[in-house]
């Protein structure tokens, strides 16, 4: 049976381009979105604190997952906001609802990440001071 496409399973050139375009999106979001920068800086300090407090690797993995999800959702929110701005050229209440709901989703997951972080860090900090 002949394959319809003779392209290789993995095109390293296309893969390299996809990483390049993804990095451009991250860079754009870093430059244009204050909340994204805040999430990145907080994540940096959370990972430093996890090392200082000797948080077990499994809990560090949990922190990485929730932080990665918040950062990923912030990227999706930015893309969605730009798409809405591209499609809707004038003020439209429906566009506002779309953008607000997307921002709300990021907010809810950021609060979830804070809750997870609190569950991991508070007992360790209390142990130091009590």
UniProtKB/TrEMBL annotation:
Location, primary (coarse class): membrane
GO terms classed as biological process: phospholipid biosynthetic process
Membrane-topology annotation of the record: Multi-pass membrane protein
A Pfam family reported for this protein in Swiss-Prot or TrEMBL: DAGK_prokar
Gene Ontology cellular component list: plasma membrane
Binding sites annotated in the UniProt record for ATP: 14, 21, 33, 81, 99-100
Residue numbers annotated as active site: 74
Chain ranges passing through the membrane: 36-55, 61-80, 101-122
PROSITE patterns linked to this entry: DAGK_PROKAR
Keyword Transmembrane on entry: yes
Protein name as catalogued: Diacylglycerol kinase
Organism: Salipaludibacillus keqinensis
């Amino acid at each position: 049976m002949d394959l319809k496409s003779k392209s290789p399973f993995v095109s390293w050139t296309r893969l390299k381009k996809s990483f390049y375009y993804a990095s451009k999106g991250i860079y754009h979001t870093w430059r244009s979105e204050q909340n994204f920068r805040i999430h990145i800086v907080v994540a940096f300090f959370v990972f430093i604190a996890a090392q200082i407090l000797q948080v077990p690797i499994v809990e560090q993995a949990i922190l990485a997952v929730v932080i990665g999800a918040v950062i990923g959702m912030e990227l999706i929110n930015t893309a969605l906001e730009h798409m809405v701005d591209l499609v809707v050229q004038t003020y439209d209440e429906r566009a506002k609802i779309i953008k607000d709901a997307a921002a709300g989703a990021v907010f809810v997951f950021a609060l979830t990440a804070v809750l997870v972080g609190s569950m991991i860090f508070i007992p360790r900090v209390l142990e130091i001071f009590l």
